[in-house]
Amino acid sequence: MKEFGYQRAYDVSGAVALLDGDGEARFLGGGTNLVDLMKTGVERPARLVDVRELPLNQIEATEDGGLRIGATVTNSDLAAHPEVRRRYPALTQAVLAGASGQLRNMATVGGNLLQRTRCGYFADVTSPCNKRDPGSGCPAIEGEHHNHAVLGASEHCVATHPSDMGVALTAFDARVSYETADGPGELPLADFYLPVGETPHLETALPPGALITGVTLPPAPVAAGSRYRKVRERASYAFAIGSIAAALDVRDGVVHDVRLAFGAVASRPWRARTAESVLTGAPADAETFAAAADAELAAARPLPHNGYKVKLMRNLVVAVLSELAEEAAR
Amino acid sequence: MTTVTRGAVGTAHTRVEGRDKVTGAARYAAEIPFAELAHGWLVLSTVARGRVRSVESDAALAMPGVLAVLHHGNAPRVDTDYVGLMGMSPDPSIALFQQERVAHLGWPVALVVAETSEQAREAAESLVVHYDQEPHDVAFSAERQSEAYALDGHMPGVVEKGDLEDRLAASAVVLDAEYTTPEEYHNPMEPHAATALWEGGRLEVVDSNQGTTWIAGELANLFSLDPASVRVRSEHVGGGFGSKGVRAHQVAAVMAATVLQRPVRVVMTRRQMFSLTGYRSPTAQRVRLGADADGRLRVLEHQSLNQTSSVHEFVEPSAAAGRSMYGAEAHHTASRIVRLDVPTPTWMRAPGEAPGSFALESAFDELAERCGIDPIELRLRNEPEVGPVSGLPFSSRNLAACFQEGARRFGWADRDPRPGVRREGRWLLGTGTAAASFPAGAMPSSAAVTAEADGTFTVRINAADIGTGARTALTVVAADALEVPTDRVRVRIGDSDLGPAMFAGGSMGTRSWAWAVTTAAAELRQSLAPGADIPAEGITVRSNTAEAVGALAQKERHSFGAQFAEVAVDPATGEVRVRRMLGVFAAGRIVNPLTARNQLVGGMIWGISMALHEEAVRDRTSGGLYGADLAGYHVAAHADIPHIEADWVDDPDPDDPVGIKGIGEIGIVGAAAAVANAVWHATGVRHRNLPIRPDRVLMAGGDA
């Protein structure tokens, strides 16, 4: 493999300065994805700036009742945190549905958001891929795509975002904080991932050289009874073929508040806002849930071998919202 | 001797090398240090068919640490015009760098050798190779039948008895169904790795393989060496499953060690293993069963098609599975191959029987449904007295006992045969069963047993312990034959200098080796006068079982088994979970229940994995695999594996000195069918294509 330089940063400004906007350098978090990609040659950085020692490993309550999660908090610590479990249980469930115990002990919140697609063509440097090698083509569209995107994809790329954590964060309107040489900034997670369009290699709206410093969750009382369901091709240690983060507040049989996000169907965690608007104010019954799912999935553009995802997501919406409604009624 | 212990065979023994393995003291092939070691990295083709026009070696040779770039223009010549231990000419795929032809994607085109593995890899990955690319064809499907031809492999290709159409017409019930299984990969945990060096005029190879007699013979033939001047060692092996024969890594290492005259190690990456170490071909199978209304078979027809490479023929004898299982008036079975621009498939654990039993045992379940007969009763009604096609007697056949014991323990009698009627929350529940069989055999081996002056015994046999527990089993067998406790017996294996012996394969290893060990040990025990002094060099007795094995009468010799599975299926998501599994086997005398159960349960897990997860997807545009790593190629994870029980009925082989039949493969056979049959029972939907993925379950209907 290519030789690379390694530096360790101990404070945020030092990390940003060490990276220095160098396109050949990468921040190293837990390394659970980047190091794999370096082994396969997908990533060939000249230099790594290790940010694991940065003082960003805290989870703190915000004054308004939300949570601020440091970028270097491990997935394990995030999932286990009592306030995360109490206020946003779907986030804990999502994190625990991903990877393995060993990987979660290493993987960081910031790195999780920046992990790359697990599309097999992207991972194989001998294969064309518009995300890895812009303009080379997308073999998935004519080839293997049974676990590729049905929403928001383009003719240039149909890869999905692999994160489970990101799906729950998206449902709860998380904001991403970052630091650049010019100072700090913040992006709503909803705007963090760029549309695929003709530029699938441009994945996030982070400014060049920016370091993610944390994620802020605004207060969301509805999230206290939230749920994450993940469907995959084996019982653990596989990426989703479809997942859902959902929260539902039902009052007098009517949907008062709802949060819904999908995983494994698009290039980013997919906030189902169309479904949410159908649901809000409507009766909390299976018929409404199905209508809401259909409204959201009307935008789906499945390929020949991934049309099942439309049915899967519809069934998941109905199943999980029905569960939540039943539990709320008890 | 005063401390005589009888009957170690049949009692549980932990692995003699277990402590070394769990503490890391056991060294595997790529971990053994050598002075002056250089590292080779294979460069594989990026086209699926064509010719290598040129290799730009100069740039690679200028990179740090690079010592050599071997390719078709400069590599040592090898000879492939021989018949090896397996009774066939070698797959030309192992004749590395002999010509410019590229036969599949991932074909070895060069080896870069450098001072470190990292330097070799970096230079190999930047090596520019120019190809004249040609259109390729990798599209396997049942429609390729018209281009296929039958082939004899380790089983005859075509066996026909009786008039098929006539007996079909006479059948009250006819089942005609097609089944498919995908490309599957062995994926042993330990990648293929070899170090080659010349020492004192001898070629030494330290390798991870399934039999050093076999590999030493192949290397001697390939490199035109005196067999006595080749030594191959393979002490610990992290799994083989049929993939660890002669492969590109050993040949490349020998070439480089010869050119550079220093030790060279070649280790494969997981991704390279997906094109260089063989695989189980996808199969397209058709089964036609004709029966009387009471389920008695008139017709058994099983046709199977598999792919092979353009350079070598390998048949997956899936259709052979039924030849010894069930009697029928018309009994037609044929395994055929079609040649494509793909790597050559090879033996993979239960070759033939694994995919073949999925089709045949699923078809039996379908026939039981049609006839309205319990699936176990249907099988019992079709138990043959003698070999259904051969007419030969069975050495022993205890399939019925397996079903009876299995049904009792699984609670089969309480089963409601109706499909799709049991629900627990979001899950539909079902149970299924299938029969299993696998050939039992032995191959000639030699052994030496020495009585040492200190009262201990040393057994030398070139066995291979590929994780099976063979070393431990042979210790137990030797101790019994010598009538001493196991702690006085030391077994040395995995070294071609120990003399010729069977490799670990065909479920024949332990039986073949145990025969030789028992013969030598028994003779040694008789020759030792009680109380007599043993000289310093010890007293050694040697054995060779060639004559005894060759004298075995022709019989139908098989292990048998009955598999049971309970599954839960969520029709809303397509998820399938196996809830429990039971296998009861009649597989000869069980030498070490601890490792035997390990092997059988491992086989059943393999079957679950085959039923629900394993599938390599070939991209038709590139000709290569999609997701060729353990993230893309799913095997069952721990969470997929429920409580599994494996047990056995008494079934000693009457013609084996120890009573062994072999247990390496039988655990897989029928396991996938039992799971698939349970999925039908849960949902009412029949799945004839493996794996039974969530999308297939979801789109097949059965929604509730």
Q: What characteristics describe this protein?
A:
heterodimer, A: 330 residues, alpha+beta, Uridine Diphospho-n-acetylenolpyruvylglucosamine Reductase, domain 2, Enolase-like, domain 1, 5-stranded antiparallel sheet, 4-stranded antiparallel sheet, 13 helices, globular, B: 704 residues, Aldehyde Oxidoreductase, domain 4, 3 domains, 6-stranded mixed sheet, 16 helices, disordered N terminus, FAD binding (chain A), FAD-bd_PCMH_sub2 (chain A), Mopterin_DH_FAD-bd (chain A), oxidoreductase (chain A), CO_DH_flav_C (chain A)
Describe how the helices and strands are arranged.
The complex is a heterodimer of chains A (330) and B (704).
Chain A: E1 5-8, H1 12-19, E2 25-28, H2 34-40, E3 47-50, E4 59-61, E5 67-70, H3 75-80, H4 82-87, H5 89-96, H6 101-106, H7 109-114, H8 120-123, H9 165-171, E6 175-180, E7 183-188, H10 189-192, E8 211-217, E9 227-232, E10 240-251, E11 254-263, E12 270-271, H11 273-279, H12 286-297, H13 308-329
Parallel strand pairs in A: 1-3, 2-3
Antiparallel strand pairs in A: 4-5, 5-8, 6-7, 6-8, 9-10, 10-11, 11-12
Helix pairs in contact in A: 5-9, 11-12, 12-13
Chain B: H1 18-23, E1 38-44, E2 50-56, H2 57-61, E3 66-71, E4 101-102, E5 108-114, H3 117-126, E6 128-133, E7 149-150, E8 158-161, H4 164-169, E9 173-181, E10 193-199, E11 202-207, H5 212-222, E12 230-233, H6 248-260, E13 264-267, H7 270-276, E14 283-291, E15 297-308, E16 330-339, H8 353-371, H9 375-381, H10 399-410, E17 423-424, E18 427-439, E19 446-451, E20 457-461, H11 470-482, E21 489-492, H12 509-527, E22 539-544, H13 546-550, E23 558-570, E24 575-586, H14 593-612, E25 617-618, E26 625-626, E27 643-648, H15 671-683, H16 694-699
Parallel strand pairs in B: 1-13, 11-12, 15-16, 20-21, 24-27
Antiparallel strand pairs in B: 1-5, 2-4, 2-6, 3-5, 7-16, 8-16, 9-14, 10-11, 10-13, 14-15, 17-18, 18-23, 19-20, 19-22, 23-24, 25-26
